[in-house]
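fyi for ur records
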Amino acid sequence: MIVRIVKMTFKTECTEEFILLYERVSPHIKAFDGCRSVSLLRDVSDGRVMMTYSLWDDEDSLNRYRHSDFFKQTWTTTKQLFAQKAEAVSLSEIKS
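which gave:
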């Protein structure tokens, strides 16, 4: 399983717009083949900073999503709301 974390810092005036966008697109992400879950998290000390935390069956599933037209369209819209460049990391669990 792959854990994907994407850290995004938004323009102050765009945070609520992103939350609304996430609410619209998250059911489609969750329905994507290989996606087990996706959550939106917010930094407790800086409300402009949000992260998505998603679980994927494997790296191939994640990459199919990342190369989909749906992702490209959503990411194009999301990037316009950023105050800083996003950071992403893919992780696999070693031990729990």
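Residues 2-92 form a domain with the Alpha-Beta Plaits fold (CATH 3.30.70.100). thats all i got for now
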